[in-house]
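Re: the 83-residue chain
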Amino acid sequence: MKKIAVISAILEEPNHCQKEFNETVSSFKGIIKGRMGIPFQEEGIAVICITVVGELNEINSLTGKLGNIPHVTVKTSISKKEL
């Protein structure tokens, strides 16, 4: 069953990790429904929120891959309701 989730990410060195982050997100484009990014240029941080709809293993896979990128911190909230 599919679930809705929100993946929140903080990129602490966007210049070093944004390319890999974007490539990883693009590889999961089938489950991504929306994305919002807010750059904090003076602080050298970017905050990104991604809304996904997918199987639990897909959501966890994306979260895990993003969390393994250096300078990226990730948290995911997953709905309890199944679609």
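The first strand starts at residue 2 and ends at 11.
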